[in-house]
Structures are given as structure tokens and as C-alpha cells.
């Protein structure tokens, strides 16, 4: 009887047993052209990894460059593989793991902010309480009538999530979030 040793389908999925998934923020500078975002996202989905947050915008109009900020989770080995594969995509100019960069520069975390629009409907005491709590979170009223408010709130993801949870019992109707925008600390750029 021939015994054939089973080999893993891909070395990509081999990770040290001691490695645990970590949350990382990646910044990717790319050409602003059709299909680039799909190629970057395809790299994650093709390997079964989720993107927790994704933002993209043109940052240098004259050079037609965009910056994609991706928050994801994986083992350090897998994240290094993703970074290396991103760097090989032709329209990608630079890939920086902002989380690792922050640690290398002696900072705990990169600067990360998110914006959310939060619609709350309510009358009477709920309305007064929503306004009071919004003030505590430094949220701004950007639309209002006698039946609802739309608040704009910015901050770390944890602050946004806490604000949403606080507004839920007061008449939360709808939430729209931008995703994380991130930048390394200190005087150096990417």
C-alpha cells in the first residue's frame, strides 16, 4: 500500500502555531485608474481575508495618485505575505504597514480617525437626552427638525461605536460611516 504524505495546498496558509491574529492598518499608494481598487481588494478576498475598514481617495491630483487605507486582521506571517503581494501589483507605488511603522518609531499606534453620520429620531425626554449625550461626545448637529437629528461625530473607531451604542435606546434610525483614515505619527512621511 502506497502512503502519500498530504501536503498543504499552499504554503501561504502555513503559519507558526504561536502566531495569533493581529489588527493592522495598511496604507497603499496607487495610481488613480480604473480597476486598481478591484485588484487590491481581490488580493484579500482571493485568500479569504476580511477587510474591516476600507477608505480610498485621490491624494495627489497632479500625479493621479490615490491612497487606500485598509484595516484587516491576520497573523504576522500572513500580513507580511499580503504586503509583499500588494507591492508586486503594477499600479501600486508603496505599501506601508502603519501599525508596524508606529512601533518601530516608538509610538503605540498610528493616528486613526473615522467620521460617522448618525440619525436619531425622538421626542420629549429622548430628544433632550440625545442632544445632551451628543454634546458629551462632541458630535455636531448637521440636520434637525421636530422629529429627528442627524449628528456628525469624528474620532477613533471605539468612540464612534460607543456613540452609536449610546444613541440606540434613544431612537437610532440610521448610521453611515466613512471607515478609518490613518497616518503615522512624527515628522516623517510614508
Automatic annotation (TrEMBL):
Its EC number is 2.2.1.6. GO terms for molecular function: acetolactate synthase activity; acetolactate synthase regulator activity. Residues 25-100 form the ACT domain. Keywords: Amino-acid biosynthesis, Branched-chain amino acid biosynthesis, Transferase. The keyword Kinase does not apply. This is Acetolactate synthase small subunit. Catalyzes the conversion of 2 pyruvate molecules into acetolactate in the first common step of the biosynthetic pathway of the branched-amino acids such as leucine, isoleucine, and valine. The lineage of its organism: Bacteria, Pseudomonadati, Pseudomonadota, Alphaproteobacteria, Hyphomicrobiales. One of its GO terms (cellular component) is cytosol. Dimer of large and small chains. GO terms for biological process: isoleucine biosynthetic process; L-valine biosynthetic process. It comes from Oricola thermophila. Pathway: Amino-acid biosynthesis; L-isoleucine biosynthesis; L-isoleucine from 2-oxobutanoate: step 1/4; Amino-acid biosynthesis; L-valine biosynthesis; L-valine from pyruvate: step 1/4. Belongs to the acetolactate synthase small subunit family. It comes from the Bacteria. It catalyses: 2 pyruvate + H(+) = (2S)-2-acetolactate + CO2. The keyword Amino-acid biosynthesis applies.
Amino acid at each position: 500500500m502506497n502512503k502519500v504524505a498530504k501536503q498543504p495546498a499552499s504554503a501561504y496558509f502555513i503559519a507558526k502555531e504561536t502566531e495569533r491574529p493581529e489588527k493592522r492598518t495598511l496604507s497603499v499608494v496607487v495610481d488613480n485608474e480604473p480597476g486598481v481598487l478591484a485588484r487590491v481588494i481581490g488580493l484579500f478576498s482571493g485568500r479569504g481575508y476580511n477587510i474591516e475598514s476600507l477608505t480610498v481617495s485621490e491624494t495627489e491630483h497632479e500625479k493621479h495618485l490615490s491612497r487606500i487605507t485598509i484595516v484587516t486582521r491576520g497573523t504576522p506571517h500572513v500580513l507580511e505575505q499580503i504586503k509583499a503581494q500588494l507591492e508586486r501589483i503594477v499600479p501600486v507605488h508603496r505599501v506601508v504597514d502603519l501599525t508596524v511603522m508606529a512601533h518601530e518609531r516608538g509610538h503605540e499606534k498610528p493616528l486613526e480617525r473615522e467620521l460617522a453620520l448618525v440619525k436619531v429620531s425622538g421626542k420629549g425626554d429622548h430628544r433632550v437626552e440625545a442632544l445632551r449625550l451628543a454634546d458629551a461626545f462632541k458630535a455636531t448637529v448637521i440636520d434637525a427638525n421636530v422629529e429627528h437629528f442627524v449628528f456628525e461625530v469624528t474620532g477613533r473607531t471605539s468612540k464612534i461605536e460607543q456613540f452609536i451604542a449610546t444613541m440606540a435606546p434613544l431612537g437610532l434610525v440610521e448610521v453611515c460611516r466613512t471607515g478609518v483614515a490613518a497616518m503615522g505619527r512624527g515628522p516623517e512621511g510614508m
